[in-house]
Design brief:
The protein is an alpha/beta fold and 518 residues long. The protein contains 18 helices and 22 strands. Helices cover 35% and strands 25% of the residues. It is found in: Cell membrane.
């Protein structure tokens, strides 16, 4: 099936999310859309899938114009979509989820799940999915849940499959398995639209790459193009994709967590008996698939989790049980994973957001009176130092782009002497140029002697920044390994294998490879 988008424009008020985009997806082709978060990729695919109505432009299937009033129309035309956040009912079985909205019935109107089970088994066997039709969704690993989403589309005879940031929640092993599945689908004549901002995966899987920047197509690229070339197309200027950092010179361990347990409101242990330490002048990266206790760990350190037990000390002082304000005043800098909700006050100005952690302290306040001139001076200095792109220091922080919002949060947290710096998903939704800058600032904080904890689901980022890596799986620490540990070993740990076993497995694979070469 040939799919064409001609002049697709989508406006939300004054915001132009897609600006006259042309795109052709040929039969049996993997066509990647590459661009940073906020570039307009997902909006474009939501238009194609009938979730949004285009402001201008048209969609053609096999040369014929089509109009979609919803996803049902798109599916009927042979277009399926796997969203970044899966559309599955956790307590339903695989078969029940696949049948949902496309129910086969027996005589008398009874649901015919046997027919659905047979289709699932047929597709699973054809593509090597290894999915049990009667398994309950919430009991399945994330990678298998994603296969269920693909099965849902294939059951409905999808000829074009849209995969929106499909590797965002996968372990490295699950990512490799998905890329193999894509190759199988392609060989079967299916067309794949692969949406991502991950250069390595896009190069590996694509037949052609279309780069989108700020809602516009800036050009097509060959998968053989270098990552540097692709990054430059995404950002519009030359960028460095490698971080030049000297080896760490760690000092004493001044931050310690001992036997930390955090319970969710339902009583489940989301952090389970975790112990670790961070030394002055080193970066400890916490890796793992999203939802394995990372958020609760950082919130417990900052005093945002109520149901906690164990000990968290900074320079010998217990933090557990203290208020958030006390912990910040104890010298903890914290960049939360959701900057717009937890890191900024959107209606407040950039200048005001830059002093949220010191608004009542000298030099910005004396008693109850704030000092506007010093607040303004601080803002101008930080805007320049961190290259924050804003119309003025008085602009509302919520009007800034995601990358510039992140720079404001980072500037605020790094603008005072720290005894501990924590950054959760420090470059999520940030363009590669800003990533380069923010990574350098994080390393500079380390080199100044501060213990640094980075929490990231991006394995490239973990490997780039970390001096040591702690891997979490279902709230438990699988181990702490050197920063140069291989992707394969880290992937095994992220899937629940203890560090010693994962490293041994990787060592054995290396031995087997050497034997084979001989």
């Amino acid at each position: 099936m040939k799919l064409e988008l001609q002049g697709i424009t989508k406006r939300f008020g004054s915001l132009v999310a897609n600006d006259h985009i042309d795109l052709v997806v040929e039969p049996g082709q993997v066509h990647s859309l590459l661009g940073e978060n906020g570039a307009g990729k997902s909006t474009l695919m939501n238009v194609l899938y009938g979730l949004y109505e285009p402001t201008e432009g048209r969609i053609l299937v096999n040369g014929e114009p089509v109009s979609f009033n919803g996803p049902g129309d798109a599916m009927a035309a042979g277009i399926g979509m796997v969203h970044q956040h899966f559309m599955l009912v956790p307590v339903f079985t695989v078969a029940e989820n696949v049948a949902l909205g496309n129910e086969a019935t027996k005589a008398g109107g009874m649901l015919n799940l046997n027919q659905t089970r047979a289709k699932i088994k047929q597709i699973s066997d054809q593509y090597g999915f290894d999915v049990d039709p009667d398994a309950v969704i919430e009991d399945l690993p994330v990678g298998v849940q994603q296969r269920v989403e693909i099965i849902k589309a294939l059951v409905r005879d999808a000829e074009v499959l849209i995969l929106d940031e499909p590797t965002a929640v996968l372990t490295p092993k699950e990512t490799d398995e998905l890329l193999a599945i894509i190759a199988q689908l392609k060989s079967d004549g299916k067309s794949i639209v692969f949406i991502s901002h991950k250069l390595r995966e896009v190069k590996q899987v694509s037949d052609i790459i279309t780069v989108i920047r700020r809602g516009k197509v800036v050009g097509d690229a060959d998968p053989m193009a270098s990552t540097t070339e692709l990054a430059s197309m995404m950002v519009g200027r030359a960028v460095s994709l490698t971080l030049d950092k000297a080896p760490a010179q760690p000092g004493e361990a001044t931050f310690r967590i001992e036997d930390l347990t955090v319970h969710a409101p339902n009583g489940q242990r989301v952090v389970d008996g975790l112990s670790l330490e961070i030394r002055r002048g080193e970066i400890l990266a916490v890796a793992g698939v999203q939802g394995n206790g990372q958020t609760e760990l950082t919130e417990a350190i900052l005093g945002l989790q109520d149901h906690t037990a164990g000990s968290i000390t900074l320079e010998g002082q217990e933090l557990l049980g203290r208020s958030v304000k006390d912990i910040i005043r104890a010298g903890v800098g914290f960049v939360p994973e959701d900057r717009s909700v937890e890191g900024l006050v959107g209606p407040f100005s950039v200048a005001e957001n830059l002093i949220l952690n010191r608004y009542d302290q000298p030099p910005f306040a004396k008693g109850l009176a704030m000092k506007p001139s010093l607040i303004e001076q601080n803002a101008q200095e930080k805007i320049g130092e961190f290259d924050v792109r804003t119309q003025s220091a008085h602009a509302a922080a919520g009007t800034l782009s995601g990358g510039n919002q992140q720079k404001v949060v980072m500037a605020r947290e790094l603008s005072r002497p720290l005894k501990l710096f924590i950054a959760s998903q420090p470059t999520r939704g940030v363009d590669v140029g800003s990533i380069e800058f923010l990574h350098k600032r994080i390393v500079a904080e380390r080199d100044g002697g501060t213990p640094v904890m980075i929490v990231s689901t991006e394995l490239d980022e973990v490997l780039e920044l970390a001096d040591r890596i702690a891997v979490l799986y279902r709230g438990r620490l699988m181990g702490i390994v050197p920063g140069k540990t291989s992707r394969d070993a880290l992937g095994l740990m992220m899937a629940g294998m203890p560090a010693e076993e994962a490293l041994g497995h990787e060592e054995q694979l290396g031995t087997d490879r050497e034997s084979g070469e001989q």
